[in-house]
Structures are given as C-alpha cells and as structure tokens.
Amino acid sequence: MSGPGGAHVREVRRIDERTYLLHVWSPANERTLRVGIMVPPPELGPRPTLYCLDGYQDFSREGEDALASDWYWSGGGHEFFGDKNLNVVFTVDPGPTMYRDFLVPVPGRGPVRLETFLAVELPPLVDAACRGNGTNGLMGVSSGAAAAFMTAVRHRGRYTTLAGFSGVYDVANAFGAALWSGMWRMKGIEPEWVMGVGLTDQWLRYDPGLRHNGNLQSLRETTVYLSAAGGLVPGEPWSRTRWNADPTLFGGTLEVTSFHATTRFAHLLSTEGVDVTEDYRLSGTHDWPLWREQLPLAWPTLARGLGVRG
Questions:
Q1: What is the DSSP letter of 121?
Q2: Cα distance between residue 241 and residue 248, in whole Å
C-alpha cells in the first residue's frame, strides 16, 4: 500500500486488540518513522481520524519498539478512545522538531520533514488501511499544541477540528521567535536549520495568529478547543513534584506562560469568528495530570468537528 511520493507501510505490530504500531517509510524523511494507531471494529464503517501530537522531547526513544507516545500512555488515550468510533493516530519520536519541515538536513540525521509526513504522506495511508473517511482532526499538548495550529494553517482545509492544551501560539514576534529558538538550541538544533536566518517569511508562514497572510482566517471553518491553567499545584501550591524541587518555578511558570499566550490567541480566534471553546483554571501545572483531565472536556468540541457521536 503506497501513498504520496512512495510513502508506504513497511511493518505492522499489534499492541492490543485495537492498537497497532506502524512502521512507515517516509520519502520526505528518507527513513522509516513509527506511529501508533487505534482503530474501531471494522463493522462500524468509515470513520474520521484524530492525530495526537506530543510535546517537546529528546530523540532518546527512537530505538524502542513499543508505542512510545505520551498521549497514549500518560494522557490516557488508550483508555479514553477505547469506545470511540474513530481512528486515533499517536505520533512517536517527534523529538524537538515541532513537527516542522527543516530547511536543511540535520548533521548526523539527514532530512527532517515531519510536517510533510504528518499532513501529506500519512493521511492517505491511514484512510486506505483503516477505513478513514477523509475527515481529520489534530490536537496537541505544549509545543505540540502550537505545532497543531502551525500545521493547520499551512495545510488549509485538511483539519475540521483542532485542540491545543497549554500551548504558546506566538511565532512571528520577538517573544515567539526567542522562545522557539531557545527550545531548539537546548537540544542542539540551530533555528536557522528550521526557519532560516533572522525573522524570515518562514516565521510568518507558521504563525496561526496572523491576518495579513490569511492564516487566522483559514481557521474559520474549524471547531477549536483551547485550555490552560494558572500554574498552581492542585491542593498544595508549594508541593514538590518530579518536574522540579519547586514546580511553581518550572511547571508552574511554563503553565502561566501558556495561560497568557492561550488567552491572547483565543481572543484573536473569537474576533475572527472562529468557533472556539475555552477552559481555564487556577490550579494545574505544565504536566500530564492536567492534560489528562482536559481530554474528556475537549472531546465534545472534537467530536462535533469530526462528526462523531458519543
């Protein structure tokens, strides 16, 4: 089974009754990439597909054969979607790429073009192999939330619904450029490899909040869910967690940043007439307990956009 440009499934491994790990040859990346997918019983007929993007990671899990998806395990996806009539795709090993197409190959790795893989090569394969009906949704956490909207504005009309949990959606301004550049550099990636030198047009193309290039307007036909929290640890504002000796300085600070960025972006969407549902709360840090709690709250919006009942 082949897709655009020769993309094809090389291997399928069964994880459980509904879940499979696909090894997909990606011509754009010149290597095999892995994705997890949950599928409902075939007798339920054609169904939409929801793509789930993890956040910021190392490249450290690439050798694993397991379904190394945070959404599947930490986010409770394997439990929540167990009775839903849709295909659910879990990305594996995005690394610190933001699911972007890099302008130049990464030294020692070769081409990195995860946007093309996610939005162009993969959907036809999923639809053909798993009875997809051509309707797609996209959701992400943290940097994966921003990546979801970046991808949507670059591939207009591909996604009918989007959800972002604790994302920062600024791209083509001083804050956004500094944030993403710093995150890439922390993992040994030069921003020029991704966006070019300086605040180039590449940054503008990916900013979902811009009107002058039609990015913001392109989201009018989608249903959107956005959420973030105030950074306090539930019940114990100064307790200690695995993130840091003081979570209010790490997970808390990250979440406060996400909160302000999310409310700004939600306002832009609302003024443009986009169907956006928002959920904000005081307690919650930048970690999976918050996002796992948000998933069922986001589901009515996602289901409406995908045309799924229940």
A1: I
A2: 10
